[in-house]
């Protein structure tokens, strides 16, 4: 039995030469549409598994003790209401006041690149994905102004394999342990423009930033200090190089000592501020396997 005859029989259509030809044409058109539809749909990426394992919060609390750039407005929580209402139920509400760049936060590319992506334009694909931790705690303990180098990354790759394209790289200097002691974390507890030349903490070298963009096509870069550039930087070249390539940055990241060098997944979701140059960031990591203790 022909395909057209079978279609006609099951559809209750009188079997004739003209009906068979019509049925065959209909099936051909339907098949072409189906194939076109399949071709037009992009492949669905496999989701990463969240069953089992554990989460690590890489975010410092947002409060009045948080650390901000010396020239930035600090965090303030203003009470609107707190307590029992006349109706007999509890009600709390607050206004928050904060600079974009303080505490654990996002640097959107526009922060250092004219025409770069603003906060609301940063792709989710750069904020969620496999995370790789580059540990330079020993170097940073020996030198507060340490510049994380290409050699540091190459040494890491010699042990763990090549950093894949699109990777989220987090640099662990160990400075997170000083939070919220401003003098220990920043190098000075002073505020205002006069404090900026007194900042001392590690950061990325311009050569490493350029290597991550041109040789590794990195997706995002974060660090557990107040800036991707070291405290003594005066030209912020690491920021400028990464931002020019629309690579977002995460600063003041916490608890990187809780992450392995490879194997974890990061979810870094900032407040979606339209036109913003950054914003408060809640960043967490998922670790597969057995749960770990603690926060």
TrEMBL record:
Transmembrane spans: none
BP GO terms, sorted: L-tryptophan catabolic process to kynurenine
Pfam families: Cyclase (PF04199)
Coiled coil stretches, renumbered: none
GO MF entry, a single one: arylformamidase activity
Full protein name: Cyclase family protein
Organism the protein comes from: Alteriqipengyuania halimionae
């Amino acid at each position: 039995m022909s395909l057209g005859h079978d279609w006609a029989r099951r559809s209750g259509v009188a079997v004739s030469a003209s009906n068979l030809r019509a049925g065959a044409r209909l099936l051909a058109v339907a098949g072409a549409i189906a194939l076109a539809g399949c071709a037009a749909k992009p492949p669905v990426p496999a989701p990463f598994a969240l069953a089992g394992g554990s989460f690590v919060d890489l975010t410092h609390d947002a409060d009045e003790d948080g650390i901000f750039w010396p020239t930035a407005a600090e965090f303030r929580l203003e009470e609107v209401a707190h307590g029992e209402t006349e109706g007999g139920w509890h009600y709390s509400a607050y206004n928050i006041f904060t600079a974009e760049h303080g505490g654990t936060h996002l640097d959107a590319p526009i922060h250092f690149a004219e025409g770069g992506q603003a906060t609301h334009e940063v792709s989710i694909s750069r904020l969620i994905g496999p995370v790789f931790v580059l540990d330079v705690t020993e170097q940073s303990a020996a030198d507060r102004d340490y510049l994380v180098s290409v050699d540091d990354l190459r040494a890491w790759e010699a042990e763990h394999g090549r950093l894949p394209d699109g990777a989220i790289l987090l640099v662990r200097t160990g400075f997170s342990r000083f939070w919220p002691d401003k003098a220990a974390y920043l190098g000075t507890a002073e505020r205002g423009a006069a404090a900026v030349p007194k900042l001392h903490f590690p950061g990325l070298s311009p050569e490493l930033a350029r290597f991550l963009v041109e040789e590794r096509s990195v997706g995002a870069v974060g660090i557990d200090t107040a800036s991707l550039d070291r405290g003594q930087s005066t030209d912020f070249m690491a920021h400028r190089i990464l931002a020019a390539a629309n690579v977002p940055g995460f600063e003041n990241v916490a608890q990187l000592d809780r992450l392995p060098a490879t194997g974890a997944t990061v979810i870094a979701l900032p407040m979606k501020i339209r036109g913003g140059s950054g914003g408060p960031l809640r960043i967490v990591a998922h670790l597969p396997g057995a749960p770990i203790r603690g926060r």
